[in-house]
Automatic annotation (TrEMBL):
<dbReference type="GO" id="GO:0004803">
    <property type="term" value="F:transposase activity"/>
</dbReference>
<dbReference type="GO" id="GO:0006313">
    <property type="term" value="P:DNA transposition"/>
</dbReference>
<dbReference type="GO" id="GO:0003677">
    <property type="term" value="F:DNA binding"/>
</dbReference>
<keyword id="KW-0238">DNA-binding</keyword>
<keyword id="KW-0233">DNA recombination</keyword>
<comment type="function">
    <text>Required for the transposition of the insertion element.</text>
</comment>
<comment type="similarity">
    <text>Belongs to the transposase mutator family.</text>
</comment>
<dbReference type="Pfam" id="PF00872">
    <property type="entry name" value="Transposase_mut"/>
</dbReference>
<protein>
    <recommendedName>
        <fullName>Mutator family transposase</fullName>
    </recommendedName>
</protein>
<feature type="compositionally biased region" description="Polar residues">
    <location>
        <begin position="59"/>
        <end position="70"/>
    </location>
</feature>
<keyword id="KW-0815">Transposition</keyword>
<keyword id="KW-0814">Transposable element</keyword>
<dbReference type="InterPro" id="IPR001207">
    <property type="entry name" value="Transposase_mutator"/>
</dbReference>
<feature type="region of interest" description="Disordered">
    <location>
        <begin position="52"/>
        <end position="75"/>
    </location>
</feature>
Amino acid sequence: MTISMEILDELLTGVKRPEDLLGDSGLLKELKIRLMERMLGAELSAHLGYEEGKAAPPGQSNRRNGSTTKVLKGQDGAFPVTVPRDRDSSFEPELIKKGQTRIDGIDDRIIGLYAAGLTVRDIQTHLLDLYGLKVSPDLISRVTDAVLDEVREWQGRALDRMYPIVIFDALRVKIRDADSRTVKNKAVYVALGVTREGVREVLGLWIAENEGAKFWLSVMNELKNRGIQDILIAVVDGLKGFPEAITAAFPEAMVQTCIVHLVRHSLNFCSWKDRKAVAADLRRIYGAATADMAAAELDAFEEKWAGKYASIAPAWRRAWAEVIPFFAFDPAIRKIIYTTNAIESLNRVIRKSIKTRGSFPTDDAATKLIYLAIRSFEKDGRNVREWFAARNQFAIMFGERFAA
């Protein structure tokens, strides 16, 4: 649509300063209001079947019935708009719906600020400083609470029949307990799947204060109820009762301890000056070509470091049953399992969102923010690098299970 120069010249008559065009009482704001009112009038005319100032169709009782003024909030601040009415209140405008008080994506901006980790008070201050909008904490809560409906739909969506890899990981978040009113450390568990096509997909998130075999089994059964029938490789970080819960729900799944977590756990026992040397020797274990060679490297590691860090080698031996499946894989698959770049990048996105919060008032408040972080994560590239080589290996190793 092109606006003629004559109309523009007429509109700009009397505009001599920037504020005459852009200010709170400037031309742009007034033009926006008038255009909205004009469109609302056109909507009512279409609804009633006759133009303003004309006679109503014979036999039609519904007529224009004056107007009402509502204050809308948008990027230009708050401004009044006159909305026409009809006698029987059957007019439902599309431009500004009944009950609507916000336009210009203000809800999206509130959610975006919340997703960035801003508190309700921070969001209030930001909207007031930037847009001159005074919004109540209750409004911000209502807008962000709408995200919970999206979370419930996302958490209950159908999943693929088979995932070659599912990585389970946990983060600790401080949440105020509703009963005791004390702040507790709760775990947020995230399941990140890799599809047959090599696409990363967050399958769900769960918040729990105490985890155990019963909790893990409920998570596995939820995934089954949502459509997963088979997991080829489940990568976990040594959580108690987790391998048993996985194999109870998915008997053929190969459970693999997350090598990254095992290495980090080992390095927690080391002094800073020894960490580099210990990490290099641990790399000889998980970098071995076969399980037998890895066991020999573990023996050598224990012989070298047992006197100084006696607890590291036993930790690897306790987890050895879930470590050795790693050595049956081709380097293409090992790289995906070991590096866990996908889950690490997801965790960085989540931690960036929650780091400004001392604690969350409820589980729902934490869920909203973490879900928004996940949504942001999934907007970026979701394809696993070098998946083609890994896919061929999966097809050979797992045959019909991968093809099903």
